[in-house]
Design brief:
By secondary structure, the protein is of the alpha+beta class. It contains 5 helices and 5 strands. Strand 3 and strand 4 form a beta hairpin.
Length: 153
């Protein structure tokens, strides 16, 4: 079946099974590297992307049900919020293996775009459902706080 998608501003028409998880299409057909396969059950957040600016988990969403514009980290080359997050994650040494980070950044971006001064509790609530197997949760929170301070300056 032909499925039409818009991924990072690029229109795609693909002949795929509509029950195929969106993540597989993103990685195999749309050259997306940021969204990762983690658990395959929507439990870890590694596959998070934006669909019409709403965070979705692409590993459990059938591609045939996708309507709207998909954005991944690859679409934000000159984004101020992601630039601040990138710098903060480096300074706070919040990345070890890096597997979870793109999903966490996709989730943190809308938070910082809407709220320049999120509390620790708001950050934790936003990141609920994202697993970091390396255990850098404390440093991830500090990195998001640092990015919020930079964006407020």
């Amino acid at each position: 079946m032909a499925v039409q998608l818009t991924v990072n501003g690029q229109a795609l028409t693909l002949d795929v099974d509509p029950s195929t998880p969106l993540l597989y299409i993103l990685r195999n057909d749309a050259s997306v590297n940021s969204a990762k396969y983690g658990c395959g059950a929507g439990q870890c957040g590694a596959c998070a992307v934006l669909l019409d600016d709403q965070v979705i988990l692409s590993c459990t969403l059938p591609v045939g049900s996708v309507k709207g514009n998909i954005k991944t980290l690859e679409s934000y080359e000159d984004d101020r919020t992601l630039s601040a997050l990138n710098k903060a994650f480096i300074v706070e040494q919040a990345v070890q293996c890096g597997y979870c980070i793109s999903g966490i950044m996709i989730r943190a971006k809308p938070l910082l775009d809407k709220n320049k001064h999120p509390s620790i509790q708001q950050i934790k609530e936003t990141l609920q459902g994202h697993l970091c197997r390396c255990g850098t949760h404390t440093r991830i929170i500090k990195a998001i706080q640092r990015a919020s301070r930079e964006l407020s300056a």
